[in-house]
């Protein structure tokens, strides 16, 4: 098909706009204010500031695949080196046995700035994640342990090794441990990033068991650990300290991937709760919404972070472009190594006057278009140059990947000069200040010294610091108020509680400060003063920010009683969205309060004669699984109110519709006018029903009949029929003529350029997913034209067919499916579940066929190499059409800019981090390289049903799975009999059979251009 010039222009514009918008949203990267130059080193071209220079300071013989590095006290560099066999591809569990990796020391003996001497100081290591030198000891993180190696005889080789810390867990990506790092407080820090459960002895002597990500610290001599912060992120990788002792971290998946947002840099404030919403955070104290990153990085996989106090005069940076930050005080600069995006970014830090939270701007500093340049660590050398550690292209464990031949994808260390002045770092003067008494240093006129002293007083729980902390609680400096709260929380709050509540009320716009004030109450306030303060708020009948804080602290402690139910209801009904959401979550956690809350709601409605507000609708939706709530809603609000019913149904999200609502909803549907049809169709979209749904089916069938008899134009009539059928309960039946009409609409290949045609086809398949095909003519049509099913549509066709088919028809379907290229995309367990009530012979035939079709290729790399040879020159513009076509169905799950779904990884910058080989392998063999964040979960329910999908959210009550591109399902945990991770990607395999070689070439070209 030949496209006209106008269509080509539109397509090109859409691609450019989508990529631009997504990139701008994801990183908020500013254009560098300096001129750049291009420097070629071996096969890698770098873009760097014109006033900087860069050189490689290691050879391949000295340094091949460095993972993380640190300076030793004598000025040498010690780094963890990978010894990787790309063909063997050992898992981290296998490496725990083979122990192939090592620790290496590099020296610059002739002082020319390049390293010329190599010494292996320790070997036989499992996968190493970090290294730290303290005196003659080298601490190495090799999950599940942190090892302490000692060179007792001074020959440079560590002959003694002992386990300094045992994390006890080792998961697939080995992100159970990152670090270690030496903090300016003298303690060793490390990160737990995987979601395996660990139990530890902690400083507060409380029981500590957690699956979440954490930043921990511990004295070098050992002893209990101290949790610093918590998160739902997948990979907290590196830490940097400011001179005042404040910490920053970089991590992946601080957000569920949406619109280019994913990774970032955050301020590791004590007690903070970061990361995407995840069940691993349940039980950890919340002071409000999850903390926001200081800098958004998109899909960067940040791997290294460091702080600089100042830059060379040549670095002429403008003031912050954010109006709120123009009056900010400079806090130095962060440098971040972005593994996936092959660059080093520069982030000036600011703090507004009288604010405790940090703001950052982002600039690209050093970048390369070389796919296998993967910066992982950054070091500041004594001559003020920056050492950039490049791990090369060997890494192939989880989300980042490389298929490049190891002989040309080696790593190394580069030296960047010209960015920093020669002056020493200011933290030296602060460390000298700490030689004096900590409490005296809390009064130092330099805020950095005072804040650092507060960090020490908090860590060591210095009781004598109370008077000074109480004084700092009203300091004009918000960071000192934050630091004082941390001290009081750890030593115990006494008479300071009223001032802490006052500070919460006056500082409600400063999220960081309010967090520390509330966390101090969680840690250090006694129950009775908190209850007395909340009782005072109840009697005053006024809602303040401190009221919400008191409720939050008592709720976390399990001390919030029924007498405060009406106060919590007031929080839920407030206009402030954050407060309202918190109030709703508290009420949802107390279903035993539902009767009295409903009585209060009814009285409030009777007195005001006002309709149900959005927060009330949200509350009723959250409590809809409570019989008394569901019955109350059905009796009081579903009598004659379409608007309440449709609004409430829309609030259910993934929750099933209660059975007691079926009859009144059916009545309202039958009584609804044509003008109300779209509201009902929207409200019922993707809903799950409980119990007997015959009344609903009959009501919608009645609508279908009326539509068929109406005088509206044929095109509108057919569309209306599809829209009503798409919201029927699963397993519904319609007459033969409607069945056949839907099948014909579904099985006609969509016109790629006609969005109306494509939308109608998708709607027809959505309708079919709800129906039981009863007509022999329908099943015959489906078998004969099943070749027109796309990879995401084939399971729907099989399910609709088998709901009332005979064994003979099942074999006819098997024969038809066996001829389809898309057969290898089917889920074995998912399809076999459709035949669980069939004769054993039918089940056996289907099982054997499914296992044969979906058997994984053993020679993935060879097959990829063969296909690389088949690819032609691709056209990105045509690839965009393939991306959005029903044949490939890429856009159903993946997003480029604002185009596409949000199920799989965002692909807006995939061309920056994946080579053509990587992209081809991911398309042909999606289960060969499963990203940890997109690994599916398989559930077997008590009724025998098998459900597979991506975990969207999880709580103690329910698990929400993304089961298809446009479907989510909420499952009560009590219904789950077996849960296990799946090694099968939700992305269909076999697209090479669905697409022509040219179409595949165009698709690859489009993805390569996504940068």
Q: Could you characterize the architecture of this molecule?
A:
This protein is of the alpha+beta class and 1011 residues long. It has 34 helices and 37 strands. The strands form nine sheets. Strands 1, 2, 23, 24, 25, 26 and 27 form a seven-stranded antiparallel β-sheet that branches. A hairpin with a 2-residue loop joins strand 35 (958-964) and strand 36 (967-972).
Which shape, going by the Cα principal axes? globular
Strand content: 15-25%
Number of strands: 37
What do the pLDDT scores average to? 84
**Structural class estimated from helices and strands:** alpha+beta
Terminal CA distance: 28 Å
Residues in helix, % = 25-40%
Main beta sheet strand tally, sense and closure: 7 strands, antiparallel
Based on CA atoms alone, the radius of gyration comes out at 31 Å
Q: In terms of per-residue confidence, which ranges show pLDDT below 50 for 5 or more consecutive residues?
A: 1-26, 320-326, 424-430
Q: With helices defined by DSSP (H or I, 4 residues minimum), what is the helix count?
A: 34
């Amino acid at each position: 098909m030949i496209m006209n010039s106008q269509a080509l222009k539109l397509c090109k514009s859409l691609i450019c706009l989508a990529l631009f918008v997504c990139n701008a949203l994801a990183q908020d990267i500013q254009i560098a204010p300096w001129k750049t130059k291009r420097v070629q080193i071996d096969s890698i071209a770098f873009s760097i500031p014109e006033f900087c220079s860069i050189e490689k300071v290691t050879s391949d013989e000295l340094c091949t695949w460095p993972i993380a590095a640190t300076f030793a006290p004598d000025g040498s560099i010690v780094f963890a080196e990978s010894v990787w066999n790309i063909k063997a591809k050992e898992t981290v569990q296998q490496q725990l046995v083979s122990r192939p990796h090592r620790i290496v020391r590099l020296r610059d003996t002739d002082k020319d700035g390049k390293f010329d001497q190599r010494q292996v100081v320790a070997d036989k290591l499992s996968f190493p994640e970090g290294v730290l030198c303290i005196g003659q000891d080298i601490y190495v993180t090799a999950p599940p342990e942190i090892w302490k190696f000692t060179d007792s005889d001074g020959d440079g080789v560590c002959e003694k090794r002992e386990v300094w810390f045992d994390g006890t867990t080792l998961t697939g990506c080995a992100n159970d441990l990152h670090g270690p790092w030496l903090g300016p407080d003298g303690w060793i820090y490390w990160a737990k990033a995987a979601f395996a459960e660990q139990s530890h002895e902690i400083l507060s002597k409380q029981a500590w068991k957690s699956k979440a990500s954490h930043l921990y610290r511990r004295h070098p001599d050992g002893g209990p650990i101290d949790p610093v912060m918590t998160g739902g992120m997948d990979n907290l990788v590196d830490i940097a300290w400011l001179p005042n002792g404040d910490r920053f971290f970089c991590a992946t998946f601080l957000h569920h991937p949406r619109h280019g947002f994913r990774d970032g840099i955050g301020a590791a404030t004590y007690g903070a709760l970061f990361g995407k919403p995840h069940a691993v955070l349940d039980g950890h104290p919340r002071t409000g919404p999850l903390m926001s990153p200081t800098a958004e990085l998109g899909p960067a996989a940040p791997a290294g972070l460091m702080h600089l106090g100042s830059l060379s005069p040549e670095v002429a940076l403008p003031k912050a472009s954010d109006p709120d930050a123009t009056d900010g005080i400079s806090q130095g600069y962060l440098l971040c190594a972005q593994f996936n995006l092959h660059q080093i970014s520069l982030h000036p830090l600011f703090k507004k006057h009288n604010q405790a939270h940090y703001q950052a701007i982002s600039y690209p500093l050093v970048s390369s278009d070389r796919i296998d340049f993967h910066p992982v660590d950054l070091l500041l050398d004594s001559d003020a140059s920056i050492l950039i550690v490049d791990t090369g292209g060997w890494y192939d464990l989880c989300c980042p990947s490389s298929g490049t031949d190891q002989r040309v994808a080696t790593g190394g260390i580069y030296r960047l000069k010209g960015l920093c002045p020669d002056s020493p770092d200011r933290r030296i003067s602060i460390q000298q200040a700490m030689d004096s008494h900590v409490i005296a240093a809390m009064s130092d006129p330099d805020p950095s010294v005072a804040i650092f002293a507060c960090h020490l007083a908090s860590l060591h729980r210095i009781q004598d610091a109370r008077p000074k902390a109480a004084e700092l609680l009203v300091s004009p400096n918000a960071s000192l108020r934050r630091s004082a709260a941390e001290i009081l929380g750890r030593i115990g709050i006494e008479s300071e509680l009223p001032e802490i509540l006052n500070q919460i009320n006056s500082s409600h716009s400063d999220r960081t400060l309010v967090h520390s004030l509330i966390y101090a109450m969680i840690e250090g306030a006694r129950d009775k003063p908190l209850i007395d303060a909340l009782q005072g708020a109840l009697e005053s009948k006024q809602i303040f920010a401190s009221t919400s804080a008191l409720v939050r602290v008592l709720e976390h402690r399990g001390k919030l009683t029924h007498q405060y139910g009406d106060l919590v209801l007031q929080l839920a009904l407030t206009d402030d969205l954050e407060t309202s959401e918190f109030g709703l979550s508290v009420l949802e956690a107390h279903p035993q309060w539902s009767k009295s809350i409903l009585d209060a709601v009814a009285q409030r409605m009777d007195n005001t004669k006002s309709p149900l507000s959005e927060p009330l609708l949200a509350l009723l939706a959250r409590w809809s699984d409570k019989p008394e709530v569901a019955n109350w809603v059905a009796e009081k609000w579903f009598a004659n109110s379409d608007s309440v019913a449709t609004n409430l149904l829309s609030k259910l999200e993934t929750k099933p519709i209660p059975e007691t609502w079926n009859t009144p909803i059916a009545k309202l549907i039958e009584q609804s006018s044509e003008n109300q049809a779209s509201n009902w169709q929207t409200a019922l979209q993707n809903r799950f029903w409980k119990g007997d749904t015959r009344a609903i089916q009959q009501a919608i069938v009645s609508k279908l009949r009326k539509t068929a008899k109406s005088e509206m134009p044929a095109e509108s009539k057919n569309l209306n029929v599809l829209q009503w059928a798409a919201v029927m309960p699963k397993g519904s039946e319609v007459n033969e003529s409607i069945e056949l009409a839907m099948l014909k609409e579904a099985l006609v290949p969509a016109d790629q350029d006609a969005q109306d045609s494509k939308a109608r086809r998708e709607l027809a398949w959505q309708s079919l997913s709800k129906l039981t095909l009863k007509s022999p003519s329908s099943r015959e049509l489906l078998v004969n034209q099943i070749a027109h099913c796309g990879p995401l549509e084939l399971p729907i066709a099989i399910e609709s067919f088998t709901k009332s088919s005979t064994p003979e028809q099942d074999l006819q379907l098997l024969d038809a499916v066996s001829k389809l290229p898309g057969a290898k995309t089917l889920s074995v367990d998912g399809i076999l579940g459709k035949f669980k009530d069939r004769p054993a012979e039918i089940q056996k035939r289907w099982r054997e066929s499914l296992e044969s079709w979906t058997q994984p290729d053993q020679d993935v790399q060879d097959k990829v190499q063969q296909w690389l040879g088949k690819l032609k020159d691709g056209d990105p513009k045509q690839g965009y059409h393939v991306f959005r076509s029903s044949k490939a169905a890429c856009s159903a799950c993946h997003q480029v800019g604002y185009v596409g779904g949000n199920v799989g990884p965002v692909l807006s910058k995939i061309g920056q981090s994946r080579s053509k080989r990587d992209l081809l392998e991911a398309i042909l063999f999606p289960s060969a390289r499963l990203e940890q964040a997109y690994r599916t979960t398989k559930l077997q329910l008590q009724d025998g049903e098998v459900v597979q999908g991506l975990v969207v959210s999880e709580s103690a009550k329910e698990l929400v799975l993304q089961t298809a591109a446009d479907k989510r399902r909420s499952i009560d945990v009590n219904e789950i009999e077996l849960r296990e991770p799946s090694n099968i990607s939700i992305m269909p395999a076999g697209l090479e059979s669905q697409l022509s070689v040219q179409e595949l070439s165009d698709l690859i070209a489009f993805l390569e251009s996504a940068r």
